[in-house]
Amino acid sequence: MSAAAPAIDQLRELAPGMPPFSYLPHTWAWLVLAVLVLMLLGLWAALRWRHWQRNRYRREALARLDAMASSEGDQRLIALRGLPELLKRVALSMPGAPPVASLGGAQWQTFLEQRAPQPLPAGFTDTLHLLAYAPDTALRTLDAQQVSTLFMTSRGWIEGHHVAV
Fold it and tell me: Which of 73, 81, 115, 155 could serve as 161's disulfide partner, Cβ 3.0–4.6 Å?
């Protein structure tokens, strides 16, 4: 008598065996390491959040500068008039708020240069003074290259000025 071969539908999958070891850490030092890593991540996140909050004035000033730079026609004249005020507002909004409200002329130039990431062009504050106080006809004589340089220099100062903590 010959035994009949079992049918394929009668086959069953074998149950997996238990691994001979545990995947969980065996010592309390791993738990301490995990807590330490989580604490460091939390500290890093808190410091990044604080840095982000402290630089809110920069983000708002850059958004305002972008709006000013993209203006055309008569709005461009208003934007040029507002550029010195924007830089002064940024200086007043710096954390620790150095006493800059009364600065003007050479003192203002010195303040801007001390906190600039790279040297400012010569006569930058003279141009800012021109923008603030000159008649509209004088502002209309500025060519596109000068205006572009003004906005780029202002952007560079706003983005990179040094804040003493």
Answer: 115
Would residue 123 be called left, alpha or beta, if left means φ above 0 and alpha means ψ between -120 and 50 degrees? left
Question: Helices (DSSP H) in 55-143: which residue ranges?
Answer: 56-69, 74-93, 105-115, 124-133, 136-140
User: Residues 119, 113: contact at Cβ < 8 Å?
Assistant: yes
CA atoms within 13 A on the CB side of 34: 7
pLDDT one-digit tens code per residue, 57-111: 889 999 999 999 888 878 888 888 889 889 889 888 887 767 888 887 778 888 8
Would you kindly state where each structural domain of the chain is located, as residue ranges? 56-160
Tell me which residue of 108, 121, 107 sits closest to 154, measured CA to CA: 121
Identify whether the C-beta of residue 65 lies closer than 8 Å to the C-beta of residue 155.
yes
Please give the model's pTM, rounded to 2 decimal places: 0.71
